[in-house]
Amino acid sequence: xxxxxxxxxxxxxxxxxxxxxxxxxxxxxxxxxxxxxxxxxxxxxxxxxxxxxxxxxxxxxxxxxxxxxxxxxxxxxxxxxxxxxxxxxxxxxxxxxxxxxxxxxxxxxxxxxxxxxxxxxxxxxxxxxxxxxxxxxxxxxxxxxxxxxxxxxxxxxxxxxxxxxxxxx
Length: 169
Hints:
mainly alpha, elongated
């Protein structure tokens, strides 16, 4: 949002709905990041000869996290805009940028901790050459990760929409 700068009044006076503006900004930023993240994740897993289970966990996690982190970036940009900044490089080091980075690290840590349970069980079974038994705990952990990431996507986008509706120029 900060990149719109002083031209935000023009967007507000156009017939473009704010919801459309928000979604276009979200998808224009998210799709390239998602393509890049998937390419890196899949290529890395192929090079490391990851098992199908680990490939699925990695790809699923990166998709969910990319969607959530993009939503967080948009929300924090709307909550703490820097419309008066002269240099775009100053935006990431602003208060909103730093809070966004801390929120992202917290989200990553939470997802890693939750996924550690099923990944540990998988690695334990693979190390002992036992068949993997999918337990309710594993399914619950993956469902919890999905819930956390969906929440971290939907809630920030709603907050961002409410905030940009309040902008006055």
